[in-house]
């Protein structure tokens, strides 16, 4: 999300590495945490599900289709959204889902954040 916010391009190499890491993380999430359960902590939604779905919505907001090609993860996403309520779920994620369409940060803010951001993503 930082490159989107700062209006900075990401190198193809960095993007490829980040997407590979995301893919591995999603596989671990499915295999070790979700397993064959309806929700992370069992048959009912919990705080763990709410925190996890919030984290997964960040790459979605950046344009990554994290649920595509992952039927187990997509089904869990649908269960979480249904448990929360579709309207509330969309409202809660509205800002992050619109982030990729927003204008980059003000140049003054961008200059202040750039050195910190670059050290985090390199």
TrEMBL record:
One GO term (biological process): glutathione metabolic process
UniProt-listed Enzyme Commission number(s): 2.5.1.18
Major place of residence: cytoplasm
Top-rank taxon: Eukaryota
Chemical reaction(s) catalysed: RX + glutathione = an S-substituted glutathione + a halide anion + H(+)
Entry GO terms, CC: cytoplasm
Keywords, sorted A to Z: Cytoplasm, Transferase
One Pfam family it belongs to: GST_C
SUPFAM superfamilies: GST C-terminal domain-like (SSF47616)
Start and end residues of each GST C-terminal domain: 1-108
Location of this chain's protein in the cell: Cytoplasm
MF annotations from Gene Ontology: glutathione transferase activity
Assembly description: Homodimer.
PANTHER family: GLUTATHIONE S-TRANSFERASE THETA-1 (PTHR43917:SF9), PTHR43917
Family: Belongs to the GST superfamily. Theta family.
Name assigned to this protein: glutathione transferase
Organism: Balaenoptera musculus
Gene behind the chain: LOC118906907
């Amino acid at each position: 999300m930082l490159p989107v916010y700062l209006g900075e391009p990401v190198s193809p190499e960095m993007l490829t590495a980040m997407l590979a890491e995301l893919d591995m993380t999603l596989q671990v999430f499915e295999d070790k945490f979700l397993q064959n359960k309806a929700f992370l902590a069992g048959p009912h939604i919990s705080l763990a599900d709410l925190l996890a779905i919030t984290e997964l919505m960040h790459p979605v907001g950046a344009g990554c289709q994290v649920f595509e090609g992952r039927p187990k993860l997509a089904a869990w996403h649908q269960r979480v959204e249904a448990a929360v309520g579709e309207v509330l779920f969309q409202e809660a994620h509205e800002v992050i889902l619109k982030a990729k369409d927003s204008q980059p940060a003000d140049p003054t803010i961008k200059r202040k954040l750039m050195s910190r951001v670059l050290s985090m993503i390199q």
